[in-house]
Amino acid sequence: MSPPHRTPACDWSPAPRPAPLPPAVGPRRAQSRNRGHGAGARGPPGARHRGGQRSFHVNLRAIIQVSQIVARGLIARGAPGSIVNISSQASQRAIANHSVYCSTKGAMDMLTKVMALELGPHKIRVNTVNPTVVMTPMGQANWSNPQKAKTMLDRIPLGKFAEVENVVDTILFLLSDRSSMTTGSAVPVDGGFLAT
């Protein structure tokens, strides 16, 4: 059974400088950062500047800012820890009309690898989870059209989208000591999409 945890919510987009974490957060040993933004994700020439900027702020800039705060706290206390970022299968596969989204998620994967190199000497592990479409309310809204869903499902060997629990279980594993030798990794939760 996992220990009790709190899930604070912060809106980090597009703030001129990092907002402080809520006071309830306090010292922590592990962090999982999840929020995706795909608005304005049309490919050139249809990409919208404002939507692309928001995607950059939410999908990448906020990751950098929150991770800096958490890593500095861990280092100052001399505490080991684990940071898990939520990326996407779209970081590793080009998807039409998703140029900004794919680009920011690809950048997040590389940021995770660099952070793993830089924070490893401080005993801080950094990984990403790269899910397929997840059946959150947003996933259901965006993929409820059977014709649209079929195009993606046909590329997933298991023939289904992920449930929230599939992603949460992977995050909990990466935050736990059971993954103590895993850092700099992008872990797919995609039903085999990236294997095709």
3D architecture notes:
By secondary structure, the protein is of the alpha/beta class. The protein has a single domain, classed as Rossmann fold. Helices cover 39% and strands 11% of the residues. It is built from five helices and four strands. Strand 2, helix 2 and strand 3 form a beta-alpha-beta unit. Helix 1 packs parallel to helix 2.
Give a quick precis of the structure.
This protein is of the alpha/beta class and 196 residues long. It is built from five helices and four strands; from the N terminus they run βαβαβαααβ.
Order of helices and strands: EHEHEHHHE
Radius of gyration: 17 Å
Biggest pleated-sheet summary: 4 strands, parallel
Identify the CATH architecture: 3-Layer(aba) Sandwich
Terminal residue distance: 35 Å
| Structural class based on helices, strands and sheet pairing | alpha/beta
The total count of strands amounts to 4
Return the CATH topology: Rossmann fold
Q: Total number of helical segments? A: 5
Mean pLDDT, nearest integer? 83
CATH superfamily: NAD(P)-binding Rossmann-like Domain
* Physical arrangement of strands within the biggest beta sheet: 1-2-3-4
Q: In which range does the helix fraction lie?
A: 25-40%
Shape descriptor: globular
* SS strand fraction: 5-15%
Q: What is the domain tally? A: 1
Low-confidence stretches: 37-42
